[in-house]
TrEMBL record:
GO-annotated cellular components: cytoplasm
Cross-referenced Gene3D superfamilies: Mur-like, catalytic domain, NAD(P)-binding Rossmann-like Domain
PROSITE patterns to which the protein is assigned, alphabetical: FOLYLPOLYGLU_SYNT_1 (PS01011)
UniProt protein name: UDP-N-acetylmuramoylalanine-D-glutamate ligase
UniProt cross-references to InterPro entries, sorted A to Z: Folylpolyglutamate_synth_CS (IPR018109), Mur-like_cat_sf (IPR036565), Mur_ligase_cen (IPR013221), MurD (IPR005762)
Domain Mur ligase central: 116-165
Listed GO MF terms: ATP binding; tetrahydrofolylpolyglutamate synthase activity; UDP-N-acetylmuramoylalanine-D-glutamate ligase activity
Keyword set, alphabetical order: ATP-binding, Cell cycle, Cell division, Ligase, Nucleotide-binding
Keyword Cell cycle annotated: yes
GO biological process terms, semicolon-separated: cell division; regulation of cell shape
Length: 203
């Protein structure tokens, strides 16, 4: 079931990490689910918290423990937070659904998506593809780890026929086109060695 359909059946979700993507995720969800209870958790104390009576925040070193205590059925996790933290593993084992800003975008975007992954050159290649498409008269936007958070574009009234996302999320998704760079046999991802080519090829 698509993430937004799942959220429509829930009363409360948690945004784990409140950087650029986390803030974008909040605004995207609030515009579509005005009655949804949203919990925001981050290791750093944030100054850009919205004045929203339906928002609860957990900031500081115990944010992951508080995430568990919040008992949310879904967590939208920022990519910079390791999935190997014991609290996250425990939440998954308890049946909590984990998803991401990128996954919501991939499921919701009405246009084509070009995903770029690999070890080096992702930003340059994504920017080059965007430039070539734009110069060719094809409407496109550059979103993801560079450019603007992806969900910001879904809140705008633009529906270009081609969208470019610098997708660094290493999971199988529905992407129209992918660009994969040569990768070393082993690559450390979030402090753990993984077989990078195997994971990237899932795209």
């Amino acid at each position: 079931m698509p993430v937004l359909d799942q959220i429509s059946r829930l009363s409360k979700v948690l945004i784990l990490g409140f950087g650029r993507e986390g803030r974008s995720t909040y605004h995207f969800l609030r515009s579509r689910f005005p009655d949804l209870q949203i919990v925001i958790a981050d290791q750093k104390i944030q100054n850009s918290v919205p004045e929203d009576p339906k928002v609860k925040t957990f900031f500081g070193p115990y944010y992951l423990k508080q995430m568990l205590n919040a008992k949310c059925q879904m967590v939208i996790k920022s990519p910079g937070i390791s999935p190997h933290y014991p609290e996250i593993v425990a939440a998954k084992e308890a049946g909590v659904i984990f998803t991401s800003h990128t996954q919501i975008f991939l499921e919701t975007c009405p246009g084509k998506i070009i995903g770029v992954t690999g070890t080096k050159g992702k930003s340059t290649t994504a920017s080059l593809i965007h430039h070539v498409l734009s110069k060719s008269g094809i409407s496109s936007v550059l979103v993801g780890n560079i450019g603007t958070p992806a969900l910001d574009f879904l809140d705008q009234s633009m529906s270009p026929p081609s969208r470019i996302s610098a997708v660094f999320k290493l999971r199988k998704t529905t992407i129209s086109t992918t660009v994969i760079f040569p990768c070393p046999k082993n690559r450390s991802i979030l402090h753990r060695p993984v077989k990078y080519p195997m994971v990237s090829s899932a795209l």
